[in-house]
Design goal:
There is one protein chain. This protein is mainly α and about 140 residues long. The protein is built from 2 helices and no strands. The N and C termini lie far apart (about 95 Å).
């Protein structure tokens, strides 16, 4: 009976060690991926910064050509659209970098989950018609 208990205990110990090794490998994999994603996001931001600067210069040149009568308003609008597109891509990349940074904090255990706990709302989030600036009461004539 004691021999069987010892074998069961050793079996549980081996399972615990295997589980620990698996978790360690998973954490290292997650950490490596989080660092690589953050580095990739920073490189993308650097590239998009260059794109935004080039697009700004394109808008400047298109505007100058338009003002000098050498370009069309369509060329200027196309340049402005390119600038807006580049700025949107840059903003998206910065957002993704922030998300990647938070993932890195989570993997390293530095992210405090209590920061994101919000108290439940005391009132529904919907505005009543009177709160939206409309007054549904009948007005005297």
């Amino acid at each position: 009976m004691i021999h069987a208990d010892v074998r069961t205990a050793y079996s549980r110990l081996r399972q615990a060690r295997l589980s620990e090794m698996y978790i360690r490998r998973q954490i290292l994999k997650d950490l490596r991926m989080a660092v690589e994603n953050l580095q990739r996001a920073r490189q993308q931001i650097d590239q998009l910064d260059i794109q935004v600067k080039a697009a700004r210069e394109g808008v400047r040149q298109a505007t100058a050509a338009f003002n000098a009568g050498l370009g069309t308003n369509l060329e200027r609008l196309i340049a402005q659209e390119g600038l807006l597109s580049a700025e949107l891509s840059l903003s998206t990349a910065k957002f993704n970098q922030d998300v990647d940074y938070l993932k890195l904090l989570r993997v390293t255990g530095e992210l405090n989950p209590e920061l994101f706990l919000m108290p439940p709302p005391t009132k529904n989030n919907f505005l009543e018609p009177n709160e939206m600036g409309r007054d549904d009461r009948k007005k005297p004539k």
